[in-house]
Design brief:
The complex is a heterodimer of chains A (about 400) and B (about 240). Helices cover about 60% and strands about 15% of the residues of chain A. Chain A has helices spanning about 1-15, 15-55, 75-80, 120-125, 135-140, 150-155, 160, 205-210, 230-245, 255-295, 300-305, 310-350, 355-385, 385-390, and strands at about 60-65, 85-90, 95, 100, 105, 110-115, 125-130, 145, 165-170, 170-180, 200, 215-220, 250-255. Chain B is built from eight helices and ten strands. The chains are: A alpha+beta (about 400), B alpha/beta (about 240). Chains A and B meet through helix 1, helix 11, helix 12 and helix 14 of A and helix 2 and helix 3 of B.
């Protein structure tokens, strides 16, 4: 056995070019499996991460009030309070369309909305200057506002200057009590309608402004992503209890969007893995081809060995081991290349794509397996050669 | 010479080897009876196509006869399996080929070790035996060399060393001088004679009657049959 290994290594080393070409197929096959699977995985975790920062645990609730039946804000708060262990935060969501003005300057694309003090956390924003909206602002319907960095910069020159200034919403004067930290990273994104172009006011004020009696939209967040299902069920039960008609409301969880995204990514991963797998198969055919050539080329050698007393098993072993060693070495080189390449490509794409253990293990064992299987056929052909015919060949 | 009461080393009884080329039947060996005793030096001579190569393959356990019995040192070789044939070749027969048939990628020592390797001998004993064998042919110092670095005569001596290494019952030489010039061919023949003197049984296959004259006993094959079997002096008289 040890002798066979030595012989195999000797033979591989003795035909450097041929061995390298055989390995090349396996190297490319293994490397591409690792690269594709790892990149897709890296991309997936990147997507999940960015979705999480967008709030996967968010549940939006929309309902339509009837003249006879409606739900008060206080009832929502009561429900929220009763299920404190399910939910992290909650806010009413009152969108109003108003003109935003300061002196003669006005803003066109600014989103103006009324929320509770918890909206800042739901969005994951930070206050840079001043303070957040407070519960007392809600209760006493204060004309206070938190503005985004873009509004502050456009109307007052900078975020710092905006603090304490007045801002006119449909002619009503509001005091800016806080300015949120800038969210956009690039200067080119810092424009009308960007994530920094907003004015938040207490929902109790916004309701008055919208001239609606009831608040139709709410945002909840679950205490844990795994409990999102439970949360939506609880909300639906609550709404049905009040409205008695499931057509009058909708409850949408962000995480269900993510489930379908995950599904798609998993499918893509499998598809790409399959394509890479085909290249491994092609590499296997390459191994078989080269081994067949090797057997033909070495017919005389096989004849001599058999004449000197080598049994079938010994010849079979020699060639199978040679094929296995070739594909193992190729597989190892492929792993090194694949790992280096996916780390490099990951860095280029700006995502972290470390080679996954599964991809490495699967591609390596498949390549060795393919080497064995495809090496066996030529090897058994070599083992069955008749020594007389083999000796006669040139 | 088959002396009464002594078991011959090679005992061929009514050997037939029949090939079919399409519809045509070719009798390469057509009823051969031959016995060779230990210590003999026999030349098997015949033109090409006479069936001498087929006979050599059978004697060398490379092939089995279509019909008949072949006993090699008392073992019935005539219907052995592939693996059993390999084993008997390995333990009983040392081959010397016309084209030397050394493996070009192995050095001299490794080439000579090869039959010992297949016999399952351990590394140190193998090496010792192979070096000993190389010493007998006067090439011990060159054990690291590769066959391509040697002359034809030297390569043939290496192949003789390889044949000797396993301490076989029979040395089977197939046209051992065929690829050599007359002087080195002479040396190789002298060496084979010396081995015979030391007690080795040698069967040499050749088409050349002048080379056959170097043996002690000559067997001539014609059309798959033995048409002469006798002392070299008798053979010299009829050619």
């Amino acid at each position: 056995m040890l002798q066979s290994f030595k012989m195999a290594l000797k033979s591989i080393w003795g035909n450097k070019m041929r061995s390298f070409l055989t390995m090349l197929g396996i190297i490319i096959g293994v490397a591409s499996v690792i690269i594709l699977v790892s990149i897709v995985n890296g991309y997936m975790s990147y997507m999940v991460e960015s979705f999480t920062s967008m709030g996967v645990n968010r549940i939006t609730v929309r309902y339509t009030a009837l003249p006879s039946r409606s739900i008060d804000v206080d009832e929502f708060y009561e429900f929220y309070g009763e299920n404190a262990e399910l939910f992290e935060q909650m806010t009413p969501n009152v969108q109003v369309s108003v003109t935003v003005k300061h002196d003669s300057d006005s803003m066109d694309a600014t989103t103006v909305g009324g929320y509770s003090e918890e909206y800042l956390d739901i969005m994951g924003y930070q206050i840079e200057y001043g303070r957040n909206l407070l519960y007392s602002d809600m209760a006493s319907r204060q004309k206070t506002a938190v503005v985004g960095a873009y509004v502050a910069t456009e109307l007052y020159g900078s975020s710092e200057n905006a603090l304490g200034e007045e801002i006119k919403l449909n002619g009503d004067s509001y005091t800016i009590v806080g300015v949120a930290e800038r969210q956009t990273e690039n200067a080119s994104d810092f424009d009308d309608g960007c994530t920094d172009d907003f004015v938040w006011i207490p929902y109790s004020r916004a309701v008055k402004m919208s001239r609606n009696a009831v608040i139709n939209n709410y945002i909840f967040t679950s205490s844990d992503i795994s409990r999102t299902e439970e949360c939506t069920t609880a909300i639906k039960d609550f709404l049905y209890g009040k409205m008695k008609n499931s057509n009058l409301y909708s409850v949408t969880a962000m995480s269900s969007l993510m489930d379908s995204l995950n599904e798609q990514i998993a499918m893509m991963s499998m598809m790409l893995g399959g394509i890479a797998g085909i290249s491994l198969l092609v590499a296997g055919v390459g191994v078989m081809n080269i081994m067949l050539v090797s057997v033909t080329e070495r017919t005389r050698e096989i004849g001599i060995r058999k004449a000197l007393g080598a049994k079938r098993r010994v010849i079979l072993q020699q060639f199978v081991i040679e094929a296995a060693v070739t594909s193992t070495i190729g597989g190892m080189i492929g792993i090194v290349f694949g790992a280096a390449a996916c780390t490099g490509i990951g860095a280029l794409m700006g995502i972290s794509a470390p080679p996954t253990l599964t991809a490495v293990v699967v591609s390596f064992s498949v390549s060795v397996g393919i080497g064995l299987i495809f090496g066996y056929m030529p090897a058994s052909r070599a083992a069955r050669l008749n020594p007389i015919d083999a000796l006669r060949s040139d | 010479m088959n002396e009464a009461g002594k078991t011959p080393l090679i005992d061929l009884r009514n050997i037939y080897k029949i090939y079919y080329m399409g519809e045509e039947e070719v009798r390469a060996n057509d009823g051969i009876n031959l016995a060779i005793c230990e210590g003999e030096f026999v030349a098997i001579v015949g033109k090409s196509g006479s069936g001498k190569s087929t006979l050599m393959n059978i004697i060398g356990a490379l092939d089995v006869p279509t019909d008949g019995e072949y006993y090699l040192a008392g073992n019935d070789v005539s219907d052995m399996s592939d693996n059993e044939l390999a084993e008997i070749r390995n333990s009983r027969i040392g081959f010397v080929f016309q084209q030397y048939n050394l493996l070009p990628k192995l050095n001299l020592l490794e080439n000579v070790e090869l039959p010992l390797l297949y016999a399952g001998m351990d590394t140190w004993e193998r090496r010792e035996r192979a070096l000993e064998s190389l010493e007998r042919v006067g090439l011990k110092e060159k054990w690291r060399s590769f066959p391509s670095q040697l002359s034809g005569g030297q390569q043939q001596r290496v192949s003789i060393a390889r044949a000797l290494a396993g301490n076989p019952s029979l040395i089977l030489a197939d046209e051992p001088t065929g690829a050599l010039d007359s002087r080195t061919g002479r040396d190789v023949l002298d060496f084979l004679k010396k081995l015979n003197w030391e007690g080795n049984t040698i069967v040499m296959i050749t088409h050349d009657s002048s080379i056959a004259l170097e043996a002690e006993r000559v067997v001539r094959i014609y059309d798959g049959k033995i048409n002469f079997d006798g002392d070299v002096k008798e053979y010299a008289a009829i050619i």
